[in-house]
Write a structure and sequence with these properties.
The protein is 0% helix and 47% strand. The chain is an all-beta fold. The protein is elongated, with a radius of gyration of 30 Å.
Length: 521
């Protein structure tokens, strides 16, 4: 859109020029971890998540670094603003600063203001697709006149910890003394349509989307990850986590909770008393830096596993003289790998005969957000008409602790001949099963079997390390009917021997099921 400031319905004034922009490097850090938070994952455990400049820096932007257009909002009420919406956050995210590319253009000297005039920058929450409440700022910023390639990046520090995945808006507002200057650079290629212009009229905010370009406004952030360490080059030797049940929290060996490698910005911590205080420091070449802010967490009793189990009460109706097959599904709702083991126990609350039953896939490990199925092969063909009960227990653990076990009841009802549609079979008898590798642990070579695969499909075994990086992808060594056999020689796809350690594997078509194996040299 284009037009003059006398035309109320035409918000935007464009000046089409071309230039190349040089990115501004992030400032050096003083060695202090920032943005420490504790996110509870069970009653006596938490995720300690912190941020450190130089390890997980990132810039959120929609422009490509080249400006094509100079933008100004031209509303006569002179409460002119532009804003850019940033979404798809991986919470939590630490917002360090916002920046805008101000142009050296002064296309109309008769208008008040010039390229050196100040503007206000602020960070806002989202309000139904428009800028909402201010979460940081506003801060007055202005160019210094050190122009490069037709403009200058000007920044404001926010230091805001964004703990949700909701969008944020970066806003620039022109003061009434210079409502049309300075101009802002915009990119007219590969549009993302996240830039907006706004003004106020009669106390009502009006926002209109830019249809032809993306504003050169950016957020410099520190990201975090919950699943895998961040593997980058850094001169940080390690981070130290200190905790105490009361203040002051001193950096002493008595309060040292744990030490983790410099590239790990997320660690599970125990919450061992009703009141807990935590802080983090960093080490560089044997020198400990200043501590982060102290975070307080209050605990309560219990230690349930971060999983969901479906069904918790398994029930199967089967016709007399027939076998049955079912499954109990386990989903990992936490943020680390959880191991499980499904076991049948002798405890029978109703005094009935045991159910002849075999288990497949009774143990394994689940990545965050993934689901596995324990297959129950119920040999009910030899049972008489009646009801039968069995009890099972599922044990869970992760790299830090053993969780409380969960009970599952199994109820089988054998009745007269029943229509097939009336029988409760939770999974088809031909359910593909990914089995544990053998031998495990292994030294040179290990074998992995997959049973009950669908005919006519191609299957690939994928092996990853603890960082989630793919190490090797393998085709079946042999196929026998509906069964597959894979063999891994402990080498990467480039033919290099892999290091000793834990590796995970899955096969295409298993809906995210993973199993763990241990390579020992």
């Amino acid at each position: 859109m284009s037009g003059s400031h006398e035309d109320r319905m035409s918000l935007l004034r464009l000046f089409c020029l071309t230039a190349v922009v040089l990115l501004v490097a992030a400032p050096a850090t003083d060695g202090k971890p920032i943005g420490l938070i504790l996110d509870r994952v069970s009653e006596y455990r938490a995720d300690a998540i912190w941020f450190f400049p130089g390890i997980n820096d990132s810039t959120l932007a929609y422009d490509d670094g080249d400006w094509d257009v100079g933008v100004g909002v031209c509303d006569v009420d002179m409460d002119n603003r532009v804003a850019v919406k940033f979404a798809d956050f991986s919470a939590p995210t630490f917002i360090r600063e916002g920046s805008v590319f101000i142009l050296s253009l002064d296309p109309d000297p008769s208008l008040p203001g010039d390229p050196l005039s100040p503007v206000e920058m602020s960070l806002h929450s989202d309000d139904e697709g428009r800028p909402g409440d201010v979460v940081s700022g506003p801060y007055v910023i202005q160019a210094t006149g050190l122009w490069e390639n037709g403009g200058e990046w000007v920044s404001a520090s926010f230091d805001y910890l964004h703990e949700s995945e909701s969008p944020l808006w970066l806003q620039v507002r022109w003061p009434s003394s210079s409502p049309f200057m300075p101009r802002i650079g915009a990119d007219a290629e590969d549009l993302d349509f996240q830039s907006w212009a706004g003004y106020s009229s009669g106390g009502v905010d009006n926002w209109q989307q830019f249809p032809d370009y993306d504003l050169m406004m950016r957020l410099d952030v520190l990201l975090s990850t919950r699943q895998f360490p961040i593997e980058v080059e850094t001169d940080i030797d390690s981070f130290a986590i200190y905790s105490r049940d009361r203040l002051p929290l001193e950096l002493s060996p008595a309060n040292l909770h744990s030490i983790t490698l410099g590239s790990v910005l997320h660690e599970r911590v125990h919450v061992e008393s009703p009141d807990n205080y935590f802080c983090v420091t960093s080490w560089r070449r044997g020198i400990e830096g200043p501590p982060s802010d102290i975070v307080h967490m209050t605990s309560s009793g219990g230690s349930a596993p971060p999983v969901s189990i479906t069904p918790i009460h398994f029930e199967s109706f089967v016709s007399v003289g027939r076998d049955s097959t079912g499954a109990v599904r386990i989903r990992n709702n936490g943020f680390t790998v959880v191991e499980y083991e499904f076991q049948l126990i002798d405890s029978d609350p109703f005094g009935s005969d045991d159910i002849p039953m075999a288990l497949k896939n009774s143990s394994g490990c689940l990545f965050p957000g993934q689901t596995d199925s324990v297959v129950l092969e119920i040999h009910s063909a030899g049972l008489e008409i009646g009801e039968y009960w069995e009890m099972a227990v599922i044990e869970f653990r992760d790299s830090i602790e053993v969780f409380l076990p969960r009970d599952v009841s199994i109820h089988v009802i054998v009745d007269e001949q029943t229509a097939a549609s009336d029988e409760h079979t939770l999974i088809p008898p031909q359910c593909m099963l990914l089995l544990q590798n053998h031998p495990n642990p292994f030294n040179c070579e290990t074998t992995i079997h997959v049973e009950n695969v669908a005919r006519g499909e191609d299957f690939i075994l994928r092996i990853v390390n603890v960082l989630g990086q793919t190490v090797r992808e393998l085709m079946p060594l042999e196929t026998s009917g509906s069964n597959l056999t894979f063999s891994w020689d402990g080498k990467s796809s480039s033919g290099c021997p892999c290091n000793s350690g834990v590796y995970f594997y899955t096969v295409s078509g298993r809906n995210g099921e993973w199993k763990k194996m241990l390579l020992i040299k």
